[in-house]
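Q: My labmate handed me this sequence with no annotations at all. I'd like to see what the chain might look like in three dimensions before we decide whether it's worth expressing. Could you predict it?
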Amino acid sequence: MTILGTSGLVLNEKLLFEHSKPGRKGYSLPKLDVPAAKLPAELCREEINGFPELSEVDVVRHFTRLSTWNYGVDSGFYPLGSCTMKYNPKVNEAAARLPGLANVHPATPPHLAQGILELMYRLQVALAEVSGFAKVTLQPAAGAQGELTGMLVIRAWHEARGSKRSKVLIPDTAHGTNPATATLAGYDVVPIASQGVLTLEEVEAHMDDDVAALMVTNPNTLGLFETNIEAICKLVHERGGMVYCDGANLNALMGIARPGDMGIDVMHFNLHKTFSTPHGGGGPGAGPVGVTEQLSPYLPAAGVERDGDRYRFEPEKTDSIGRLMTFHGNVGIMVRAFAYARTLGGSGLKHASQMAVLNANYVRARLEGVYDLPYKRRSLHEVIFSDKDLPGGCHTLDVAKRLIDYGYHPPTIYFPLVVKGAIMIEPTETESQDVLDEFCDAMIAIAGEARDNPDLLHQAPVRSRVRRLDETTAARKPKLRWEANP
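A: Here is what I predict for the chain of 486 residues:
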């Protein structure tokens, strides 16, 4: 720990201890007369004139106070759709911090790292069982990297067959990162406009000999299950293509349906959404990828295999796309995921999905008729409303800002783009009926305010420490450097 001394210099704990031992008169801090000029230039911040010097107690109180103003899944309900911001059991955090797992150097020889290798192997097997795929790689360190891995595997498979296909089909209900991933993998994106769920006819109209793959999200971003997925996969395969599934919404399917059984060839898992890892603030994450047997030779290196009662890294494969990162993946996330899966077991994972679907449909039933429901079909893990029928000139942003006054983090808004004024709610399995009822009561009250006092919504939030920001100006004229108050 370090604190600022009275001279503004940083003092460390060891230094303070040495100069405050019993027997030293006054227990005083050492006098350090070090000119500021001797500090490394890159550490000096001349642009902040009058930077304050604070005591430790002032600093601690300041950051403790800020932490109580912050909002997190430990303090309230996060209804963000397509993000699965669910509560994560703290025992999994403790497991990830066990010294024998957290302190293993990635270059440790396999014979000295049998514990973590066994965990990685068993996690591979568990993910393969949940998803229905023949092989799983743990190396990708994020969902986006998992997507890229999957598309590079598909590209390698085509190239091995002498095929130089250039197009990827992506429906407008797929996850938002899919077009970027396909482009990064070197493909041209062909969008498909669907009517909620993909039909065989829609895919067939775009399927030709230049299509390398179809990228789908199932359930899709409307919270709807792609009921025609088996027939669509068969069609794509008959025309020489592959089917990639974005696994962001696996929280709706665990123990109920397996993408590999539907004809899907490749899928990435978001361990930071589905398998118990804090999700937000840009990380951490992990995006393992599952593939069919015919695609397994192309997976990244560094998979773990079992050899009798021992575990080792797989030998380098001739057809592998190579490594996605220097070592073996985001191991701390793997530990959390393995602990989560082992704690719940197969029946527990299934129950989690069932409750996620039940909760979403409960919210749907309570708010239908209060907010516009563009797709009047049974939802899976999330439900999409819109601002179509809101009175008083109120829109989705007004509802989201007003929810802050009621103590809730706003849901995902204006996504998916196929729904104008979308309000995307995913309650997950971790929220109780009491919490959902309180949230729905707030949403209903806000709809009433839109009718009776629309100006209140236009000004919201009115009870938060920060009022509504001028987002248009902030986007057009961003201030990217700290500025002292005049």
